[in-house]
What we know:
Layout: H1 2-31, H2 33-51, H3 56-86, H4 92-122, H5 124-131, H6 134-151, H7 158-175, H8 182-204
Helix pairs in contact: 1-2, 1-8, 2-3, 2-6, 2-8, 3-4, 6-7, 6-8, 7-8
Amino acid sequence: MGAEGKGGDRGGNLRASFGHALRGLVEVTARERNMRIHVLAGVALGVFGGEVRLAPAPQLALLLSAALVLWAELGNSALESLVDLVTKEPRPEARRAKDAAAAAVLALAAGALLVAAAVVSSSLPEVRSALGRGHRLAAGAGVLSAAAWLLAPGRRLPALDLLAAAAGALLLVLLAPGAASPVFTALAASLLALAAAAARRARSEGRR
């Protein structure tokens, strides 16, 4: 009985931990402009990888780069919040800590762009083949447009956000059967869902 209770507690703690992590992810996306840019870039990467047939190594390089950039931006946001909690004064130590964290994000983002450029340049035949599928290209652009709408600042009707999220999800469902990589399509879907959750969070905080 005691063991079952402890197991149940561990399960509850695990669920709570995931909930806290997801809440942090949504809050940072809702509040931080740079995070929204990275999320939009991640959706674009998901659409790209879902349409262009790449070898396993380039796929892993792109996925790892995207994960590192998002991780760095989350860490940067956490550090900035911690520094602000310690002091609101314009102290040089606080500025150096924030600047160093921002520089880490910049370095990783630049590295991710170089990785993407290397992958594209080494996969030009596959990229041209994907560009030739006009209907799928238009659907992918629609997904990216839906994500951009959800991540854009400004006040608007909640129904429009819901419509954008639904349209993006529908387009991903239509793209999924013929996707070159279901993993990248799942990445685009996950980040689109994050964009929708962040838009809802921003409205609830009165930021829209």
